[in-house]
Write a structure and sequence with these properties.
By secondary structure, the chain is mostly helical. It has a domain at 57-137. 52% of the residues lie in helices and 9% in strands. It has 7 helices and 2 strands; from the N terminus they run E-E-H-H-H-H-H-H-H. The chain has helices spanning 37-52, 62-75, 82-92, 102-108, 113-122, 124-138, 143-146, and strands at 4-10, 16-21. A two-stranded antiparallel ribbon has the order 1-2. Strand 1 (4-10) and strand 2 (16-21) form a beta hairpin. Helix 2 crosses helix 3 (82-92). The longest helix is centred in the N-terminal third of the chain and has 16 residues, at 37-52.
Length: 149
């Protein structure tokens, strides 16, 4: 995998230097469709384990603790990664399921699913963020269309 010359850069003194194009590195893992079934099963078990594992021995899934921590950071006006935040918000409010649906993580962790959803709806900042996310994902009817008979 030698770099190839893609062009030449000339300077004002007449010198030239090559512009090298480095070939992309191959993907270290093959396509998941080519994995053997036992490898896929182990990966699925690992995903479930990481979603439901609790590092604090309090039987609350770590995924839910991470979600609560992210919402707390948003409420304290600390910087949060927007993509992670909106992905988490959409997962909690069940706009999408992710690898493991929110309701299943809550059921297996014996946590009431509506607890975090109600908190998002009750706190104005989080509710604003959710409504904004919902409009991005699902759109919004115009006022005329909402009241049409």
């Amino acid at each position: 995998m030698k770099p190839q010359v893609g062009g030449w850069q000339l300077d004002i003194f007449g010198g030239d230097s090559p512009i090298l194009i480095t070939p992309p590195k191959p993907d270290p893992l093959p396509d998941p469709d080519r994995w053997e079934s036992h490898v896929r099963e182990k990966l699925a078990e690992a995903v479930v384990f990481f979603a439901l594992d609790s590092r604090h021995s309090d039987n609350v899934p770590e995924a839910l603790i991470d979600c609560a921590e992210m919402l707390h950071q948003r409420l304290c006006n600390r910087p949060v990664d927007k993509i992670d935040y909106y992905a988490t918000l959409g997962w909690i409010m069940e706009l999408w399921t992710g690898a493991i649906p929110y309701s299943i993580v809550c059921a297996l962790g014996r946590v009431r699913p509506r607890a975090m959803q109600d908190a998002i709806r009750d706190v104005p900042l989080l509710n604003y963020d959710f409504n904004r996310l919902n409009r991005w994902c699902c759109g919004q009817l115009s006022l005329e269309a909402q009241w049409a008979v």
